[in-house]
Amino acid sequence: MKFLKPAVLLLTVSLAGTGWAADLDKVAVSVASLLQQGHYSRQKLDDEVSKKLFDQYLQDLDANKLFFTQADVDMLRAKYETTLDDAILAGDLDPAREIFALYKKRVTDRIASNKELATKKYNFTGKETVALDRKDAPWPKDMAEADDLWRKRIEAELLQETLNVHAVDAPVKIVNRREDQLLRNIDDMDDESIVSGFLGALSRTYDPHTEYMSPSELESFEIEMKKSLEGVGAVLQSEDGYAKIKEIVPGGPADLEGSLKVNDRIAMVAQGNGPWEDVVEMKLDKVVQKIRGKRGTTVRLQVIPANATDTSRRKIVAIKRDEVQLKEQKASAEIIDLKRPDGKSLRLGWIELPSFYADLEHSGDENAVSTTKDVSQLLERLQKEGIQGLVIDLRRDGGGSLEEAINLTGLFIPKGPVVQAKDPNGKVSVSYDKNEKAMYDGPLVVVSNRLSASASEIFAAALQDYGRAVIVGDERSFGKGTVQQMYDIGRIMPFFSLGAADAGALKLTILKFYRVSGGATQLEGVKSDIVLPSLTDYPEIGEGALPHPLPYDEVAPLRIPRSDELASIKGQLQALSQARVSADPEFRYISDDMARLKKRIAENTVSLNLKDRKAELDAANARIDERKKERAKRGNPVDAVAYEVNLDNVNKPELQKVAFDRKKKGLSYDDDDSADDEKTDKSDKDSKKDQEDTVVTDAIRNEALRISADMVDLLKGNKTASAQTAPKNPALP
Questions:
Q1: Alpha carbon 385 to chain centroid, angstroms
Q2: Cβ contact 299:232 at 8 Å
Q3: Nearest residue to 35 (alpha-carbon basis) of 429, 384, 507
Q4: Whole-angstrom Cα distance, residue 200 to residue 674?
Q5: Is residue 692 included in any domain, yes or no?
Q6: b (16+ CB within 10 A) / e for 416-442
Q7: Which of 324, 466, 707, 712 could staple 389 via S-S, CB 3.0–4.6 A?
Q8: Catalytic residue among 216, 220, 454, 528
Q9: Is 480 a catalytic residue?
């Protein structure tokens, strides 16, 4: 099975108590053998990989560089930096165990001192600051420097909980519970857990999407792929003690509720109306267990928003658990009658595509689930209703089926090549669209962002290369240009190995993709023709932010029947959009928020002064209130009427009119209106009422529609001018 989606697991699970019986040394040798022989890079497990593995393993254990000292690292480096490769190939996993043993000792000792620090009195009146993210910082040179770092960090945690109006207990008790939880996490790590983590680090030295999965991790991955789990439909990853939202599963309860966003961090969990439980420093599998539950029950999450400049800021999200419904993951559409300045209406189509889905088990069956088949039905109805332009929304589309990406592209281009692929031997193959004629050849806009990945990038890149669409949105898409295949480790282990059937699996990168124009989508992604301000448009989202990504390269371009019609008007489209964006208050809000976010990331510090922190929170709350007043005064920014088109009503004679500015399927709207529930002085009830009263403003959507309208006008003008200047009877003498 090949996977085009970014390789993010539903959760990472400890192996403690699972009875994993495989011979760990033979598992390690088999993983190493498969990496060397099967990975796209054909990289030998040598000293170079050993150095990367050493750094990656220490980074996985101590991401913020707070437990090990530089002296520890120097000692370990001298002993293991260039010998880990030899040890793995010999089936010797003692180095992994010894490194972990030192880490466990440092954590255990530190927890004891941290609990003492938490009981001290702090007045929060000084001018000190603490670093938010230390992953790029040097290791503390000695224990004295580490002590000082931890003093500030504990003070910061106490201040954070002092400011948190949703805190469930006194700050000292909360911090001490987190320290106890961290100690329990360490104590729960048995030998199988240690080895699994070490092999995971080894896999990621080859590229970020190659991943070793223990049996329990493999089970969770299969659950995620099948979308059959009863829960909230959010992909989590552990980072700096928090369960962080890495992906919202399209069509899942979290997606439909709409408040959770990528990079939000979960601080507390409550069951229904029950008490809050702190989950900071809790093992990810335990956090997931608390979020999962029976269908129909409710879980509440206390979340630190992704764009919060202060970690004491919270929003409350209540989600009713359910099974992910496949129909909610399918394509849907709208017909939008957009009122123009001259009073006339322009009819536009909008297709939202959450993923490139397909029924792999019933491929070829006319009743099998297919993105292309569904979009064809929607597109046929949109054209029947007389749309003059079309927008395809790929925001948050993480990819899926390669075949569907190719076939869907064929609805918009003439017969020809869509994508190239190169194998480890350098052989390049080409995949073609076989449709003789495009189903839709009118004005086309594609909206993407840094969460649009893999198959969605293939689709967008092909339309851009053919000159068929203008790409609008973030500066670039995610940048995943690789394909993975799953291998059962037990199948390549010696047949006499104990527990070979429970050896886990390796998801291995085997191919790279290239545009028909020759460039890879790897790292570069697909660059937008028209860039719009967006809260997802920052470098920490994308392939380049992941460890050890494969490099960008190129293959020979292909000859294709490119249309230059859009190229002739692209400059005008950009100028018209830029003028609107510059005058649009919604984009000013986004730009202001991005500037604050970038400033916070650059400064990478937070104040330990209570007065200063309160002032920052008050300023944030005042800003939210002011924006809400300004929006109410301005009214609806777009004069439009919308009709919903989905796979249930696509063939019905009458279409349902819907509110143009309604909240749709959990899109991460790029404004701060959704931040009303993040205000620190609101109760859960007040927060919920604010969400219900909020009118959604999706600035990206609004501008994409305006760009589509511009395209219709400009292309119509070009054709009119051509008709006026052409000879009346060019075939006659």
A1: 35
A2: yes
A3: 507
A4: 37
A5: no
A6: bbbbbbbeeeeeeeebebebeebebee
A7: 712
A8: 454
A9: yes
| 335 shares its domain with 317 | no
Tell me how far apart the alpha carbons of residues 253 and 274 are, in angstroms, rounded to a whole number: 20
The whole-angstrom separation of Cα 177 and Cα 241 is: 13
Query: CA nearest 538: which of 285, 265, 263, 311?
Result: 263
Beta strand residue intervals within 95-164, DSSP E = 129-131
Our measurement of the distance from residue 15's CA atom to the centroid of its chain's CA atoms, rounded to an integer in Å, reads 26
pLDDT-based confidence at residue 691 (cuts at 50, 70, 90): very low
What CATH number does the domain containing 316 carry? 2.30.42.10
530 and 413, same domain (yes or no): yes
695-724 burial, b at 16+ Cβ within 10 Å, e below that, comes to ebbbbbbbbbbbbbbbbbbbbeeeeeeeee
Contact 461, 417 (CB under 8 A): no
Q: What is the 3-state secondary structure (H, E, C) of 1-38?
A: CEECCCCCCCCCCCCCCCCCCCCHHHHHHHHHHHHHHH
Q: Is 60 a catalytic residue?
A: no
Spell out a b/e string for 291-314, using b for 16 or more CB atoms within 10 Å of the CB, else e: bbbeeeebbbbbbbbbbbbbbbbb
Is residue 298 in some structural domain? yes
> Of 480, 628, 663, 679, which is the active-site residue?
480
Instruction: Please pick, among 465, 584, 670, 672, the residue that the annotation labels catalytic.
Output: 465
Q: Is 465 a catalytic residue?
A: yes
Share of residues in the chain with pLDDT > 70 (%):
85
Q: Which residue has the tokens 């896999």?
A: 203
Q: Which domain holds residue 181?
A: 44-205
* Residue 7 located in a structural domain: no
Confidence of residue 325 (pLDDT cuts 50, 70, 90): low
Task: Indicate the SS3 state at residue 562.
Answer: coil
List, for residues 125-152, the tens digit of each pLDDT value.
Answer: 999 999 989 999 999 999 999 999 999 9
Query: Tokens for 71?
Result: 């002296």
Tokens 């190229």 — which residue? 567
**What does pTM read for this prediction?**
0.82
User: Same domain for 378 and 236?
Assistant: no
Distance CA 188, CA 97 (A): 14
